Amino acid sequence: MNTNEEMQPAVMEKTATGLTEEEIEAASAWVHPLRAEIGRFLIGQHDLVDRLIAVLLVRGHVLLEGVPGLAKTLALKTLAELVNGEFHRIQFTPDMLPADIVGTQIFDPRAARFEVKKGPVFANFILADEINRAPAKVQSALLEAMQEKQVTIGDESFKLADPFFVLATQNPLEQEGTYPLPEAQLDRFMMKVLVDYPTMEEEMAVIDIAATTQDIANPVPVVSLDLIRQAQKVVNRVYLDEKVKRYIVSLVHATRRPDDFGLKIGPYLRVGASPRASIAMTLLGKARAFLDGRTYVTPHDVKSIAPDVLRHRVVVSYEAEAEGLDSEHFIRQILDEMPVP
Q1: Phi, psi of 316, deg, nearest 5
Q2: In terms of DSSP bridges, do strands 103-108 and 113-118 run parallel, antiparallel, or are they unpaired?
Q3: Within 10 A of 40 (CB to CB), how many other CB atoms are there?
Q4: How far apart are alpha carbons 83 and 228 in whole angstroms?
């Protein structure tokens, strides 16, 4: 079994004629200033910040789950302001209609014609707050926009912004009056990230910053959308070794046919991850390597993002639920027992 250090020379040799460390360094020069500036407004949550940046770099979308008050809205709003992008927050409610998301046609009596009124989905950063409070047809309107990167209103189609990044939140506490996202729709999110409480030290720092009646200064942009788009092209060139690619595919297939890999968890898994999981792990592995200043993906990159990619795509059986076991338990078991290249 090779360690990451052992496979590094071979990887570097293969990437010598491709992407260079100098190119990575130049394209990612904005990463440290962005992290530092976010840290002025968002205490802790370093993993969340890195995941948001990684998903932005690979044109994906994120589903966040956590109790109220954990700065989920602040995280995306701050990120949008720091990259000088347009930010819209949509509060999902049971009485919403798809037109409240994508827009509609409004009749202008003076011109005697219908005019298009664009909805809040036309922005770079969309916060879909408590997405599970809206009915399925409203959820589908947003998810279609996420997938197609365009919206059709009447007989016209409109391209969405570039970059277009959706962060949807779910409140895990309240189930009354909610419409849980079906598995097929959950699959559209590249990651599902669980947001936990801050530590005592972090919460004391939060008090120092937020426990005031004075207005807090707005974040100052540290990177442009053009630099983000250039970085996205560089991320695509990050090298993925054939062994790491096979490791990604093996992890995903182990959620579908665990017996083939010697994992005795078959009766506990009802639905495995789709090919979207393999694509997501590949892209996010490259983004993580980029954020670390490397030209190649390591197995550690894959293992670090695999739980966020798989947890909402793996559905456990009734037997697992009866024993109090969730998808997180089996994903961790797969990661622990599958051989690492």
Answers
A1: -85, 160
A2: antiparallel
A3: 14
A4: 8
Contact 144, 157 (CB under 8 A): no
Q: CA 77, CA 54: separation in Å to the nearest integer?
A: 16
Amino acid at 188: R
Distances (CA, A) of 93 to 97, 135, 200, 293, 305: 9, 8, 33, 42, 31
pLDDT values of the chain reduced to their tens digit, one per residue, 341 residues: 444 444 444 444 445 437 888 999 999 999 999 998 888 888 878 888 899 999 999 999 999 988 777 778 888 888 999 998 999 999 998 889 989 999 888 888 887 788 888 999 999 999 998 888 888 888 888 888 888 888 888 788 899 999 999 999 887 776 666 788 877 778 889 999 988 888 888 888 888 777 665 666 778 888 999 999 999 999 999 999 999 999 999 999 999 999 988 898 889 999 899 999 999 999 999 999 999 999 999 999 999 999 999 999 999 889 988 988 899 999 999 999 999 98
The token pair that represents 211 in the structure block? 């426990």
Question: Given the structure tokens 């009447």, which residue do they identify?
Answer: 154
Structural tokens at position 194 = 């669980």
For residue 161, the one-letter residue type is A
DSSP H/E element including 65: strand 62-65
Question: What Rg value do the Cα atoms of the chain yield, rounded?
Answer: 21
Kindly provide the residue ranges of all beta strands, DSSP E only, lying in 119-212, ordered along the sequence. Answer: 125-129, 150-153, 156-159, 165-170, 191-194
Neighbours of 269 (CB within 10 A): 23
Here the tokens at position 206 are 């939060």
Structural domains in the chain, sorted by start: 1-19+238-341 (1.10.8.80), 29-236 (3.40.50.300)
CB 62 within 8 A of CB 191: yes
